[in-house]
From TrEMBL:
Family annotation (SUPFAM superfamilies): Ribonuclease H-like
Species, as recorded: Deinococcus aetherius
Protein name: Transposase Tn5-like N-terminal domain-containing protein
Domain spans labelled Transposase Tn5-like N-terminal: 11-63
Family annotation (Pfam families): Tnp_DNA_bind
Superkingdom field: Bacteria
InterPro entries: RNaseH-like_sf, TN5-like_N_sf, Tn5p-like, Transposase_Tn5-like_N
């Protein structure tokens, strides 16, 4: 995966040259800092700034009361979305949540618990935008990002109505799609997420905004199939493979690198809303299910079940949805259809 880089200064000017920070000098400083970040993205802030004077100037800018996360990022978000609207092929908005660990700074205020609740920090959710119209996918930028601090909720004292209205971290997937906005006509925008994105409300809201969704299944949800009502995992595990993929699994946990053969199966069904909660009255959502699993172990060690709102009616489309699972080596691999 690649990104199209301009000259670092031109890129930074494009992103932050229109910032209004109360003083033109602060805007110029923001562009200078952005240039340093783009020129050395893998470095720390002292490495990026180069000198003590530049580092102090960066600290003064970042500590200013006129500077906050949304105001700094808004121009970049809009630029990324504009590029996505002009893309001729499908655009992937790859969502994920990162933990920002500030446990080494106990005096910092405004943080929440992280991990096993003994640490402190922030949660940051990002939508990285990637276009797939070229042979090599291109990174367009970040279309949305938000941070929050976890708070302790006394769930035992909530009423059912209060619990239904309370925001949870699972809402962030739908909030991201809503913040970016409806997919333009003739554009294919796809929200991509891991197991944490297996939230019915996120799927429903994305479809209302003309988005498509590709997620990894986490819950054994109820599904309506051509044969009747079933559970997604149970249903897909009864499907024989229609294709096989050979790939290399890297060494891990003391086990050497090895070759594995995965079976791939797919089918279409209607994902039913949860029986309880705020989503229980909403209609079912049509999804195509793709399962890839290690044939030798029957999926006990390696198994991925994906849900896609994009139609999957051929083996090639099933493989496109699946692509490369986590933990798969990026070496060349081959597949062969299974004879009926």
């Amino acid at each position: 995966m690649e990104t199209q880089w301009l000259d670092p200064y031109l890129w930074a000017e494009q992103q932050w040259g229109t910032l209004r920070l109360g003083d033109p000098r602060r805007t110029r400083r923001a562009v200078q800092l952005g240039t340093a970040l783009a020129a050395c993205p893998e470095g720390s802030l002292p490495q990026q700034c180069g000198t003590w004077a530049e580092l102090k100037a960066a600290y003064r800018l970042l500590e200013g009361s006129t500077l906050d996360h949304p105001s700094v990022c808004a121009a970049h978000w809009q630029h990324t979305r504009a590029q996505a609207q002009r893309s001729a092929g499908p655009v992937l908005f790859i969502q994920d949540t990162t933990t920002l660990d500030f446990s080494a700074h106990p005096a910092t205020v405004g943080l929440g618990h992280i991990g096993d609740t003994h640490g402190q920090g922030l949660m940051m959710h990002t939508a990285l935008t990637v276009t797939t119209q070229d042979t090599v996918p291109q990174i367009l930028g970040v279309a949305w990002q938000q941070t929050w601090a976890r708070t302790t909720v006394n769930k035992g004292h909530e009423t059912r109505a209060e619990r239904a209205k309370r925001r949870t971290e699972y809402d962030v997937w739908a909030e991201t799609v809503q913040a970016i906005g409806s997919a333009p006509p003739d554009c294919t925008w796809v929200s991509v997420g891991d197991r944490g994105s297996d939230v019915f409300s996120s799927l429903r809201i994305a479809r209302q905004l003309d988005w498509h969704v590709l997620i990894r299944l986490a819950q054994n949800r109820c599904v309506r199939t051509a044969q009747g009502d079933d559970k997604v995992l149970d249903w897909m595990r009864r499907h024989p493979p229609v294709a096989m993929i050979s790939l290399s699994r890297p060494a891990e946990q003391g086990r050497p690198k090895r070759e594995v053969v995965l079976g791939v199966a797919y089918d279409v069904g209607w994902l039913r809303a949860p029986r309880t909660g705020a989503e229980r009255h909403h209609p079912a959502q049509q999804v195509w299910c793709v399962r890839a699993y290690e044939l030798q172990t029957g999926g006990q060690e390696l198994e991925w079940v994906l849900l896609s709102t994009l139609p999957v009616i051929t083996i090639e489309q099933a493989l496109e949805q699946w692509n490369d699972p986590p933990g798969a080596d990026q070496e060349a691999r081959h597949f062969a259809p299974v004879s009926p």
